[in-house]
Write a structure and sequence with these properties.
- Pfam families: DUF389.
- By secondary structure, the chain is α+β, with helices and mostly antiparallel strands.
- The protein has two domains: 2-97, ACT domain (Alpha-Beta Plaits, 2-Layer Sandwich), CATH 3.30.70.260; 104-301, Up-down Bundle (Glycerol uptake facilitator protein), CATH 1.20.1080.
- It has helices at 10-22, 53-62, 65-68, 82-90, 101-111, 116-135, 138-147, 151-163, 166-196, 220-239, 244-249, 255-267, 270-297, and strands at residues 2-8, 26-36, 41-48, 70-75.
- It has a four-stranded antiparallel sheet.
- A hairpin with a 4-residue loop joins strand 2 (26-36) and strand 3 (41-48).
Length: 314
Amino acid sequence: MLHLRAICPPEHTEAALRALREHPGAAHVVLLRGVALVPEGDLIEADIAREATDEVVAALCGLGIDHSGGITLEQIDTALSDAADEAEVRAPGDGADAVVWEELLARTGDESRLNGTFLAFLAIACLLAAVGVITDSPVTIVGAMVVGPEFGPLAAIAVGLVRRRWDLARRAAVALAIGFPLAMLITAGGTALGNAAGLFDASVIAGGGHQVDFVYEVGPWSLIVALLAGAAGMLSMTSAKSAALVGVFISVTTVPAAGYASVAAILGDWSRVVGSIGQLVVNLVGIVVAAAAVLLIRRVTWTTEDAGRPLPEG
């Protein structure tokens, strides 16, 4: 279940309470009159079955509470209550299959923002991948996969395309279009410094038989893995089973491919640069396509239209 808290102008309080009382998926409705100071108003709290959240939020937004007051949602880890159990039974659908679209939009919107933290994680991940390439260490490559923050923007593009939220898709595309080239440039600079210092030379990637050669060897399996990872990642995000995301991170070869391309470019192996870039593109496209396909399949859970709230800039 989710805990809902709404700051409501007094003139809309009764209508908001009526919407909560009449919805079968709401429980533990609480009203505290006049306790909200900024903005002024009444405080309404309730516990909502996950599968009922979109309808309840849409009803409150229909009263303009998201503009004149505020609505927040929090995950409830444990609820010991017959009323809560009955609300989950009465609410249509299954909580594990329900998509809380406003929650998904907020999460992907936040994770797709181009900022210093995103760029730092992406640059560090690419540098780790470069170390893995130079030392022929699959373990370091896996570490780079886990550190990479790119799945957030990829998921945001999928959500933006399916929900026609072009502002979200544009924000995510900008983050990737700037983030990856900048991270690769930093990685190339680090590689050049290491090469100039005599830590390694072109022989580290010459020939075949390396354990990390899969990074630049693009093929049908690259697309298959990207599709499966994209589907699993979106299922994880929409069902609140975030533990599965770790498996997604270590399945795709996005950051490792970017790191390998940077190393190969500095060492002059342009065929592997092309292969690595191809691997990167295949993985990026495959993840977005699969994630969007999952959302399209789950359209049967749509009970409300997009509220159209602009993405927060802060």
